[in-house]
Design goal:
The chain is mainly beta. The chain has one domain (5-113): Beta Complex (Metal Binding Protein, Guanine Nucleotide Exchange Factor, Chain A), CATH 2.170.150. It has one helix at 31-37, and strands at 5-8, 15-18, 24-28, 42-48, 52-55, 59-64, 67-72, 78-83, 89-93, 108-109. Strand 6 and strand 7 form a beta hairpin. The protein starts with a strand and ends in a 40-residue tail after the last strand. Residues 142-149 have low confidence and may be disordered.
């Protein structure tokens, strides 16, 4: 399958289309993603923001620090998140994609927060913290002085 890749919310009020292949597909086990999705683990498909068209008057968002998560204001479906530290990228919920089976996650992030009863027996790389380093941050999620960022 090749681009465009499409998706949207449950009720159809929000739609999006990516005109290129994703740069990132991963699972996230962090508590923030659990609360935002209501699921024990989330999966994301990342695209360059300038390759995405996002439409929907009902699109709402919630900001928590540098991360802004969007959702449909009608049906409540989680749609995507952006991180102001990664301003050229957008990450869509795998479940919001029209053809989610096409996007196989390539890694796990924040496995130190993985729920103890959740077993995902695969050979994918597992990151204790983030799988997408932010500026001034090492791949394990630490800032320049060894602090959490």
């Amino acid at each position: 399958m090749t681009a465009p890749h499409t998706g949207g919310c449950r009720c159809g009020a929000v739609r999006f289309e990516a005109s290129a292949e994703p740069h990132h597909i991963s699972y996230c086990h962090c508590g923030d993603c659990r609360r935002a999705s209501g699921a024990p683990v989330s999966a994301f498909v990342g695209f360059m923001a300038d390759q995405v068209a996002l439409n929907g008057k009902s699109l709402k968002s919630y900001r928590n620090g540098p991360v802004e998560r969007s959702f449909c204001g009608i049906c409540g479906s989680p749609i995507a998140y952006v991180d102001q530290r990664l301003d050229t990228k957008i990450y869509f919920m795998l479940g919001a994609m029209d053809m989610p089976a096409y996007f196989k996650p390539m890694q796990h992030a924040y496995v130190r927060e993985q729920l103890p009863f959740l077993h995902m027996p695969d050979d994918l790389p597992r990151h204790l913290k983030t799988s997408v380093p932010r500026p001034n941050q090492t791949p394990d999620g630490q800032g320049p002085n060894g602090t959490q960022s």
